[in-house]
Amino acid sequence: MRVSAIGCAALLLVAVGACGGRESGGEAGTAASGQCQGQQTTGITDKSIKLGGIYPLSGPASAYGDIPKGIKAYFDYVNAEKGGIGGRTVEFIVRDDGYQPPKAVEEARRLVEQDQVFALFQTLGTPSTTATWDYTNQRKVPQVFVATGASKWGTDGAHPWTIGWQPNYVSEARVYAQYLKAEKPSAKIAVLYQNDDFGKDLLGGFKKAIEGTQLTIVAEQSYEVTDPSIDPQMRNLAGSKADVFLDITTPKFGSQALAADVRNTGWNPLHIINNVAASITVLKPVGFDNVQGVVSSSYYKDPNDPTWATDAEMTLYKQKVKQYAPGADPNIPYLTFGWAVANSFHKAMDAAKCPTREGLRDSVRDLRNVPIDMLLPGVTLSTGQGDAFPIESMQLMTFKGQRWELFGKVIDTRKEFGPLTG
Known about the structure:
Elements (H helix, E strand, L loop, with lengths): L4 H9 L34 E8 L11 H15 L7 E8 L4 H14 L4 E5 L2 H13 L4 E4 L5 H4 L6 E3 L4 H15 L4 E7 L2 H13 L6 E8 L7 H8 L5 E5 L2 H13 L6 E4 L6 H4 L11 E4 L13 H13 L8 H19 L5 H7 L6 E2 L8 E2 L11 E8 L2 E4 L4 E2 H5 L5
Parallel strand pairs: 1-2, 1-3, 3-4, 4-5, 6-7, 6-8, 8-9
Antiparallel strand pairs: 10-13, 11-12, 13-14, 13-15
């Protein structure tokens, strides 16, 4: 069907027209006209976009509560100084699930059915996102740039409305395996991992990556997010006398593992901590003198790294966080993460052919080397047919002095290891 150029332009510049129907699932819905006829416009008008985020603002993973502060600072800045996104003011509603999957489902329903959000933007955690993605896909609500690196967000074809953002855990594990092959090719490795889809995904990727090498896992210990301490697990791992410790934890348990490593004076392994627990806020309570030489990886700029002291995006970010998130510390990397992912949403909406839920769904799966200024140089957003992983590049880093120091080159895991498939 042909649509006039005037009609198309009008659709994209004015209100996405409403109709009186109801969407499948029961909530009152609106739909577009013109070239985007019939597509969902719940939560978006010509003047506003309503988004919902679900985070553990309380509970064992509450350190991640800094992420929505960075997101909101970005959106408040764009609303106040840039006229919003495409002329639309962004309203970002944040709910707390306490890192409990049943609570995440409850909050997802609340956001979709009561708050009538346009999209769920950022549901944090593999367990919580796993608990909600059947619901969001049945309701055909975009669940975009979820804050978890589980590989299934990019390999599962049955959930087209859900997509990740950060590098997936399997690719991250491959990077650590490649590093050890070069630096400690005969290493004996002890592993601590969270006993859920997050921990198992990264550990499984690591095991596969070291197949056929001289690298061997000599001890494994898991923990539950409800555990008060991982000291017993750490004592068991120390008894293995492994020369590498792979630390697959969330922030609370990352700090505990680092502290236990320090206390076990008879055990001094190379400590590799996964990216999601590598924030300076995790290391600082242990004492910087005690975490020298710890290794991790990253893909976005560290606000504590003097390399970016005069970087234009970092300068803007620090100014606007102080302005729009008074009381928040811009040097906490989780805020930087939030700023970067909010900017990514902005770029995805700008690229959407239709200002609709379907338009956003399609846009995030058709990103072609989109630059995000808070990502490391050489890291861009790229998705396409058969590749639903927006970021697949990262760089190793080691802790020196009072900050992380990048080393080596940015590793494009697509090119280095081949595509990750289900």
